[in-house]
Design a protein that fits this description.
15 helices, 2 domains, 224 residues, mainly alpha, 56% helix, Serine Threonine Protein Phosphatase 5, Tetratricopeptide repeat, elongated
């Protein structure tokens, strides 16, 4: 039987991380952006003043892909609009059709400015998101976004959440990372925050064992 773990690993090997992420998240296409009207158009364009004129129904409306204006603002990196939307009553916990919230969208984009704006406005770093039942922290660790990881840790993201692949943020930073500087700094941030190093994958293999097997000497030093 082909497991989801195996499918994900194969996709990463064949298509690369960015392509796998593109399959997982669906930002508005050029055609969708051009067709947006009202609050959607304002959110995409960064027009925070338009939020003040929006109705409650507009704030939490969802398009054909389940995206709210807040999702669109996160995809477009419009931090001021994201803050204004939440302040006006937009629900930051709504998930789109791919099960992503605005925080995870900003985390995947490595958009620290928008991420911090969302968190300061009241969005949560603790939601379970994506088809993998993960978190924004796991997604950011996977991609090696250390500043995003630090911001999420500061906001109380669950350090040791295990997704439905059996992986924590620390495990993903090792097995889906490249062992380079950004993944080293990601591991450092997780370890310094107290992420458990003894939690293994479904086969019981720990992050340290994975790092040794891959020859990631800097990460091995952090995990020992």
């Amino acid at each position: 039987m082909i497991t989801r773990h195996a499918v994900t690993a194969t996709m990463i090997l064949v298509f690369g991380l960015s392509s796998v992420l593109a399959l997982a998240q669906t930002p508005p296409s050029g055609a969708e952006l051009a067709a947006y009207r009202g609050l959607y158009a304002a959110s995409a364009a960064g027009d925070a003043d338009a939020v003040k004129r929006a109705s409650k129904a507009e704030l939490n409306a969802q398009d054909a892909k389940g995206r709210t204006p807040l999702h669109v603002a996160a995809f477009q990196g419009k931090a001021a609009v994201a803050e204004a939307l939440i302040a006006a009553g937009a629900n930051p916990a709504i998930l789109d059709s791919e099960r992503y919230d605005a925080v995870t969208i900003a985390a995947v984009r490595d958009d620290v400015v928008t991420l911090r704006a969302l968190l300061a406005a009241g969005a949560s770093a603790k939601l379970i998101t994506s088809r993998y039942d993960g978190t924004a922290l796991i997604a950011a660790a996977h991609l090696g976004h250390p500043e995003v990881v630090k911001a999420l840790i500061e906001a109380g993201a669950p350090l040791d959440h295990v997704n439905n692949l059996g992986w924590t943020a620390l495990i993903e930073a090792v097995i889906l990372g490249d062992g380079g500087r950004r993944h080293v700094e990601t591991v450092r941030a997780l370890v310094q925050a107290g992420a458990r190093r003894d939690v293994g994958d479904r086969q019981g293999v720990t992050p340290l064992q994975h790092a040794k097997a891959r020859g990631y000497t800097d990460i091995v030093a952090l995990l020992q």
